[in-house]
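Backbone Fold Data
Goal — fold tokens
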Amino acid sequence: MTASTAHLSVEDIERIGAELEAIRDEVMSSLGEADARYIRRVIRTQRGLEIAGRILLLGALFPPAFVAGTASLGVAKILENMEIGHNVLHGQWDWMRDPEIHSTTWEWDHVSTASSWQQTHNYLHHTYTNVHNKDRDIGYNVLRVDPDQPWHPTYLFQTITNLGLALIFEYGIAAFDLEIDQVQRGEKTWAEKMPEIRTMLRKAGKQALKDYVVFPALSGPSFVPALVGGLLANTIRNVWSHAVIFCGHFPVEVETFDEERLENESQAEWYVRQMLGSANIEGSALLHIMTGNLSHQIEHHLFPDMPSNHYAAIAPKVRDLCRRYGLPYHAGPMWKQYGGVLWKIARLSFPGGHETIAKRQRRSLPVGRKAAATLRRLRERAVPQAA
């Protein structure tokens, strides 16, 4: 129970869960050919952009070709990681039974292997979202993004650490997915961890060989600018995906939870935790696609295996549900969300921070939520009598 849910009864939370289940059932029972055409169109577009980018970089000595090729390749990599790779690996398109677009066969354009990412992200993060000591995504083991994380002098430099992490984000995620902290905690030995490390190094080697050797070599005299174009495309993808993911979980208003929260947690309570532990980015349809629809992070966390092209349609229903039950629905434009994240990281580089973060979270609570909840209960009681 938190300040956001203190006004809700057990029955209220179960009703919230039931309404969310109804939203899910309506969408999942409607999936069909139009959805299949959508993901195949996105994949064709992404591959077209990547081919165009690679061809343009063959002539990277010519500045317009370098700029256009780098931009095209950067957009292709963003699409591959966000709207395609992330969502395919969540199993959102498994219902199509297409062996080429399936969570068990897809290997994405990323240093982190699909299987290791599915373990740390699909399972650990999505099951234990924002629960201390269970969700390793809280600060990724290098940042203090919640005041309940113990302060350490190394956090004094975390604004710089965060900048560096953004630039090499895919390598940071790959290292994070290795879960080296299991060795530090004595849960595994280095000998047990080595097969995972070798697998990751092989994937990283293949990625580097592709982007920084093979394709630049095909450009002959344009080798160096083509290599720089590939490096910039990867950096563009890294910075963008870092920003989107941080906006989804680290804005000031987003809540974290203690482990006790998990004790006897019902499905409905799990749904509520997902809503309170996530935040959305408001923007255009193009922004939503370029974020892999993680701009609808709340809806994604409620239904991680729901095809992403449905999140925009159900977002107003989820938002209305939050309004009716007096729950906060964290959403805002990207500049506001990311600005809040950067401010929070800067503030929490110093000890403390509990009061300022708690104050911002209290301000995010809907005005008159108790009154709204009371009116809703009275209205629900009146309906059966009228019938």
Summary: The longest helix spans residues 190-218. The CA atoms of residues 253 and 358 lie 8 Å apart. DSSP finds 16 helices and two strands in the chain. The mean pLDDT is 93.
